[in-house]
Design goal:
Protein name: Aminotransferase class III-fold pyridoxal phosphate-dependent enzyme
Largest sheet: 7 strands, mixed
CATH class of the largest domain: Alpha Beta
Keywords: Aminotransferase, Pyridoxal phosphate, Transferase
Number of strands: 17
Cofactor: pyridoxal 5'-phosphate
Family: Belongs to the class-III pyridoxal-phosphate-dependent aminotransferase family.
CATH architecture of the largest domain: 3-Layer(aba) Sandwich
Shape: globular
GO molecular function: pyridoxal phosphate binding; transaminase activity
Bound molecules: 4'-deoxy-4'-aminopyridoxal-5'-phosphate
Strand content: 15-25%
Length: about 425
């Protein structure tokens, strides 16, 4: 006899009996997942979901090359980093080939948060200063020092407010922010520079090239160039958080900072790097890495182990072999065109934005007032789920639908998403 699957509420109750609900699940009635392959996920009841949401399985859920590489390496050698082994040399070499020259040192860790945390240590060590300038609505991770610079957390529900260690800067958002004209990047930069000058010195400026938790907001054009110059003029460092935007997702660029024609001093990596296996990294310059080498050993039990490095290498290989950056560009451009077409049809789509397969669209009550329609965004997310499509919502008003699927997403997948959004908005 085939065992009957447990009911969702039973599984949820079991989870919450041992895992606090603050470690949250999506949807009022969560999805009871069983397995996944490429851009599809399957629940315990055999239903197939199109994953238009998850950017961690970058090259596709359970990609066979990544899985097999991990399995083989796990069966052969996994150890801490205190020995010589080929995998770390091969991987860090391959990774650095994707960076401009000055960025030639890698620290391997196990998450985006650990990478952000280490980046904060590096900049404080290098500059002797403590305060970090960071964008409003930005998120950089879950450790104490990183929460302190993540406006999304310290200014959000349950947050403690801004501490003296952070200098919050307005998010350079050309849709909803203060400046929208052609030269908005310069106007936002001037505002940021003024704030930096008025502070008594910062160790670093950190930003995501497209602010994910802020609602997929691309930084206004030209912004980073001007802010980086001003930060460096006062001996501060510049950090690009590429945890969400890196590894070709943006289509035109392998890293988001390239879109703004800058080279950071430190880059933070995570999520897609291991396609779900927990690896993160800090990439920086010789000078910054050397200054950190003050005699106190830096050790990570798992960071840079042979299995993680082999998996990281397999991810880079698959991006290359399957031309996934190009796919992100082609399918992403098509996705944006189709969403823009829907925007012409429905007044409630106020803005469509993003690059490659890192896309967001805002739902508003009025195009002119930009009054956010949070309820409609929730409705679209939930109705899409009922139609077996996964997306999420975010932004300061939680009215932005986010779509950042595995890079193997196809135009047919886009057609399905668009068709269903059209059907939902038609009824709204
Ligand atoms: N930076 C950014 C931009 C992120 O989106 C996240 C995770 N959402 C992190 C850092 C932290 O990464 P992790 O969850 O792997 O610790």
């Amino acid at each position: 006899e085939v065992p009957k699957e447990k009911a969702i509420d039973e599984v949820q109750a079991e989870r919450f009996s041992s895992v606090n609900p603050i470690f949250s699940v999506s949807y009022k009635t969560p999805i009871y997942m069983e397995r996944a392959a490429f851009q599809y996920m399957f629940d315990k009841y055999g239903k197939r979901y199109l994953d238009a949401y998850n950017n961690i399985p970058h090259v596709g859920h359970s990609h066979p090359k990544v899985v097999e590489t991990g399995q083989k390496q796990m069966a052969k050698l996994n150890t801490n980093t205190r020995y010589l082994y080929d995998q770390i040399n091969a991987y860090t070499g391959s990774l650095l080939r994707h960076f401009p020259k000055p960025l030639n040192k890698v620290f391997l860790v196990n998450s985006g948060s650990a990478a952000s945390d280490l980046a904060i240590r590096l900049v404080r060590n290098f500059t002797g200063k403590k305060r970090i300038a960071a964008l409003e609505h930005g998120y950089h991770g879950n450790t104490n020092s990183v929460i302190e610079i993540s406006h999304y957390k310290f200014a959000g529900k349950g947050g403690q407010g801004a501490s003296e260690n952070v200098l919050p800067l307005p998010m350079p958002d050309i849709y909803r922010g203060e400046f929208q004209a052609e030269n908005a990047g310069t106007s936002y930069a001037e505002k940021a520079i003024q704030k930096i000058r008025n502070s008594d010195g910062i160790a670093a400026f950190i930003a995501e090239p497209v602010v994910g938790c802020g609602g997929q907001v691309p930084l206004a054009s030209g912004y980073l160039k001007e802010v980086y110059a001003a930060v460096r003029a006062q001996n501060g460092l510049c950090i690009s958080d590429e945890v969400q935007t890196g590894f070709g997702r943006l289509g035109d660029f392998f890293w988001g900072f390239e879109a703004q024609e800058v080279v950071p001093d430190i880059v933070i990596l995570g999520k897609p790097m291991g396609n779900g296996h927990p690896i993160g990294a800090v990439v920086t310059t010789d000078e910054i890495a050397d200054a950190f080498n003050n005699g106190m050993e830096f050790f990570s039990s798992f960071g840079g182990n042979p299995v993680s490095c082999a998996i990281g290498q397999a991810v880079l290989d698959v991006i290359d072999e399957e031309k996934l950056q190009r796919n992100a560009k082609e399918v992403g451009d098509y996705y944006m065109r189709e969403l823009t077409r829907l925007q012409q049809k429905y007044e409630c789509i106020g803005d469509v934005r993003g690059a490659g397969l890192f896309i967001g669209f805002e739902l508003v009550k009025h195009r002119l007032t930009l009054e956010p329609d949070t309820a409609l965004a929730q409705k679209v997310k939930n109705e899409l789920r009922n139609r077996y499509i996964l997306v999420s919502t975010d932004g300061p008003y939680d009215n932005v639908i986010k779509s950042k699927p595995p890079l193997c997403f196809s135009k047919e997948n886009v057609d399905e998403v668009i068709h269903q959004i059209d059907a939902i908005l038609k009824q709204s």
